[in-house]
Amino acid sequence: MAAVDSFQFLYREISRTCNSYFETLALVGALYTASRAVILLSDCCTLVRVHFLPRLIPSKKLTQRYGDWAVVYGASEPVAKAYAEELARHAISIIFVTRDPSSVRDMSAYLSQNYGVETVVVSADFSLDQVACKPIKEALRGKDIGFLVNCVDESLASPQSLIEVPEQHLLDLVNRNIAVTTLMTRLVLPGMVDRSRGAVVNISSGACCRPLLGRVTLTASTGYLDHLSRALHLEYSSKGIFIQSLLPFQIASSEQQPSSSSSSPSRREGWFVPKPEVYARHAISTLGVSNRTTGYWPHTLQYGLMRCIPEWIWVLGSRVLISSS
Asked: Which residue of 75, 121, 134, 191 shows the fewest CB atoms closer than 10 Å?
């Protein structure tokens, strides 16, 4: 009984001592809850503004806003092909820059026949250094280039430890996904600056948001493209150039080619895994609206969830999944 009385007395003393702090703690809790609610409301408004309003409210034609021609590098990737087709649907002529012309020749003919646009295929072997720039400059001369689309190499999505990648293959990956995309931007930007209009779209991957086991080259390359886009936007947005970083997650394989521009091997089509054509249709509607976006609103939900997970939990979960598989 004495123990009970002692506990009650101790509890009353502690309550009396801390009573002055209760209102302060309640105020801090209310402020924190309000701040989280404001952030959630802001994210919801951004989701509607970026992904829904542009598709509901008519705007100027892309040719009037940016230009008549688009340069597409990496068009052998399904998502880049779909993006090029969406541009052609808006009456924009296409210049394909590729090391293997046969990979885009059918696509080039398809766009010309179905959309009545001009298409040009430029063969450029960037392993020859600056020699590859000459045919590109010739193709650009005299054209109103309004778009540059760079797409990351899908082969980066294959899980592979860095020490397992052959040295020459690693150099080729770095050259194609980092050096060449930067060089393509360098070749196209001067004309856009002179005309005070244009758009540069770098399609990378949501993998740049968090480290992934077995995908060092993917995380690093897409991270470079993302930061390149953000830096270019800071430098050239005042000159009328819109620079966009697209960060898609999983994209289903196209019917023509079994491949994907995602950071995961799964390619089953679904709500969160759209067809390349569906993704491109959504992504192109965000042009001029957001300089950094997933391009597809379900992917934006995924990205928001990923941001809420601390990195140490993400890394721990990745290791558990890898070890259990």
From this structure: 134
